[in-house]
Amino acid sequence: MKPIENRLRETIGLDAATVGPGLIQRAVRQRMRSLGLKRVEDYRRCLEHSPAEWNELVESVVVSETWFFRDPEPIAAFVRLVREEWLPVHSTPLLRVLSVPCASGEEPFSLVMALLDGGVPANRFQVEAVDISIRSLARVAQGVYGRNSFRATDLSFRDRYFEPTQEGFQLNAAVRNSVRFYRGNLLSDAVLHSGANYDFIFCRNLLIYLDPLMRRKALDKLGRLLTPTGVLFVSPVEQSLTVEHGFTKAKIPMAFACRKGPYRVRRQGPARLSKLSVHASEPRLMGETKAPHQIGNPSSGHHNDLETARRLADAGRLKEAAEMCEAHLRESGVSAQAYYLLGLVREAGGELGAVECYRKALYLEPNHCESLLQMALLLQKNGDAARAHAFKSRAQRIKLRT
Q1: In sequence order, what are the residues at sequence separation of 6 or more whose Cβ sits closer than 8 angstroms to the Cβ of residue 127?
Q2: What's the pLDDT tens digit per position in 244-283?
Q3: pTM > 0.85
Q4: Is the same domain home to 231 and 324?
Q5: Cα→Cα distances 272→109, 220, 267, 303, Å
Q6: Which residues constitute the domain of residue 29?
Q7: Could you give the angle at the alpha carbon of 376 between the alpha carbons of 373 and 379, nearest 5°?
Q8: Helix axes 336-348, 306-314, angle to 10 degrees
Q9: C-beta atoms surrounding 11 within 10 Å
Q10: Which of these three, 259, 275, 291, is where a domain ends?
Q11: Cis amide bond preceding 101, omega within 30
Q12: SS3 of 258, please?
């Protein structure tokens, strides 16, 4: 089995430890049964001579879990940066955005919908998307998505951009035509080699699966693909990996965005555009409609809910966000999600106590995947690699079961 694991690491960068060797073994055994093979050595030789079978194995081990607007905070930050930083200093060029890996298209299509909702004309941007999975890209070609792709809290975008059909929900042509999809492996020199640069790159939940050597190779390439003032969006547990590689945090709460180096925004005119929500629909608090940038005050009588705390954190109001989380815990009872969010807010603000919050979240909900990953990240930072690996492995096992 080791030679197969080594080939997966060398070609797609997959570190078997991140998904658990059991997953790869199960995938190999399943493929062997489908081919009528009894020995692993026979299957290994088959892989060497059959590109089609190699693709089948890759399909079996890649993780393609995604849905529309899966993480609203980074998308909201992306639209604000486009509106407030990029557009004021780029009167004619085309905004270039990359989503890699893009799975079945939910992320890049979410970026397009968010830009359109933010008032950015379709002729001002181009989104490109890359994934290694043939099956995932086949779903993109159909443009029809089932209910599993709509797990966001706010589904108003579905009414604006989709038509219900017997098979699911059909994405409209305007959004589909704004994304160019390519099949490929980010680690391959033949992929994204044209020399063109991107203003924004979304590469979330890929680096955590890569072998350390291949992770460095991927980060080198992402750095080359970014414009000098470009922004890279990664997942919460991956931001420390980018910083270790020379990127700098963009210091946007809850967005987990990075830049290639020190950056100062150049603006035209004194006005600063107001902050945008992810969707065109306005958030409702206590049944009252507010403008997207009017988040509310924790003492103003609004519900002390975690959604509002997230929006406060997204706006940079970390102290208020923490106060709202604490109020929620006092008034609504303890919950793993509340402690997790409080931990993120404290960590973003450089305060102590984040670890304790994550521990409380895991006491209440031992399989709280996000808290496990954050604990792994903090332990890694503190030099406790063994315990960090244990937490990360637990989180990956949980992800594979869900």
Answers
A1: 97, 98, 99, 108, 111, 112, 178, 179, 180
A2: 888 999 888 888 899 986 544 444 433 332 333 333 333 2
A3: no
A4: no
A5: 27, 33, 9, 29
A6: 2-61
A7: 150
A8: 10
A9: 15
A10: 259
A11: yes
A12: strand
